[in-house]
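Collaborator request log, item 7. Partner lab (contact: R.S.) asked for a structural prediction of S1 RNA binding domain protein to inform their binding assays.
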Amino acid sequence: MKKAEFMVDKVGETYDGIISSVTKFGIFVELPNTIEGLIHVNNLKQDYFHFIENHMALVGERTGMTLKIGQKVQIRVEKADPETREVDFELISAEEVAPVEGPKGRKKGKANSSTRSNNQRRNKKDESFDGKKKKNKKKGKGKKQPFYKEAMKQKNKKGKKKK
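Returned to partner:
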């Protein structure tokens, strides 16, 4: 509470800080005076960022910009609310670091190979993958009837014998 109260009159000022934590919803930056604040992922206007959990980093989709723990950043104090004890920052700049491998999403317009193989397995009994019916399907009397039709035939046979 005291930290947020201390930062109320510092709104709009810029500071150098270090990223102390990275989450899927944003990054926490610690200033030299031990004040810690959040830069929410929605306020990162430079790019659309993906959270890479095993690297504890946010990686920009288009630019490849990487934000990770220990990285030096320059921030502007956006909001300090003593009631909610929150201090919000805006990212001005970040030092360049080695890029982290981004998320492995599928490319637009291309089918995922695992989806294709699942579809093949699903359709294996009735149809081939290209949609054509298989030729070796049973027809006529050799085709297995539903259980209730077989039961009806047996019932009819029993009824005929009694007459």
